[in-house]
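User: Hello, can you help with two protein structures?

Assistant: Certainly.
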Amino acid sequence: MRRLLFCAFLVFLGGRVGAAIKPIFRPVSDLDTVRYVFMNADRDPEWLRVKKRIASFLPAPVELILYQEESSDKHDWKQEFSDVIAMERVQLVQIPKSGATPWARELFPIATWDENGAIRLVDSRDSFRVELDNWLASWLGVGLIRHGFYVNSANLIADQSGNCILAERRFSYLVPSSVYEKYYGCGSLVRLPYQLDAGSVDESVVILKSGVVATDNDQYEISLKKNGYRVLRLPKPRAQNATYANVIIVNGIVIMPVFGERSDAMAMNVYLNSGFTVFPVKSDDLAVSRRRSLRSLTMTYPEPIQAQGLMN
């Protein structure tokens, strides 16, 4: 937690003498200001229903970027969303070899803030053998760093002080902690113990603010508390594969999966009491058939260059 203490000192110093808070090298956090939300354009009616609900809750000026593989598909995907979001906030882009998988979170690279407050992308590798790193670096006009290790974008979360959390899973145990410090700027790293059915860390843990997390996993709760986190408990839905942790956080808003259960309200209160505005999206069919949820469908990025307001 040394970065957390360091940042607290800077805040204190800034309050005393009016000094600006300097950016630090760290991963982009879900709590940072979002400008772009990426989702795969897909004809599946269930996908479309869920994605339109997500789009309807995105606050301006957040832009929705719908992507598809280069093909002869002439369908006007932007118009599919015209009843839920202003068309000037929607782009349709063609990404070569992006594939048909809807799980954007696992395909796109992790972004970091450099010491000057600018965005820098870091290589990611996924189980679908699809890498969109080069395309996104070109589209955003930012740099890209490669390191050769298997780091999945869905399995690394961070707060705004550079404290990182991952869940041990396939191949992750081969990546030394020094990689996360050197390439991603993790000031501290909690490696949650391997569990057969736990999946990526974002399926069980969500960061609410620096030093505060929520989880529905007993073993993870113990590990996180031992590492100094304040842990709030999320209920576990009865629906198969369902979770309340895999939420989309966009500029103070939480877009949360719900399953038509009494536990929906309990989970919603965790986010409401943490200061978020919460919008529910019915996700029971999605969870049962897809084994992932809302955050997995999206990838979020801030403005490519943002030298100020980094740690608000």
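That covers the first. Now for the second protein you mentioned:
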Amino acid sequence: MTAPARRSRPRWLPVALVGAGAVLLAVPLLVGPGTAVAAGAPAPRTNPTPVLSARRAPDLVLAPVGRRKVAAAAAPVVAAAPSTSCVLVRDGDLVLVGSQPGEPLAPASNLKVLTAALALDVLGPSTTFSTEVVGPG
């Protein structure tokens, strides 16, 4: 019994494919901004951003800049806070600004609930307050 004959691929096919690819890659390089393009053909595309540019990965630049701005804006507020308070400004797991973050204190939410219950008991449910917002101009 003989093995079936294998169809052999022409030896020139890989060379032709590589040559065609080289021509397709070279055409955009040869057609510059001042080169005339055939009527009806789309204009050649240009990319104003270099391949190795920080603009292609903006988070690498923007995240640290944003963190520095937040930390700079929050630092005076944290510094002016009373010594009995704790403040923590974070970006994910990264602490930007902090003051006594491990200090055990009663949460403000619980104090608000207790204050509201006491105010309701002392002032009554019919008491209302008005707030006036005043701005320049």
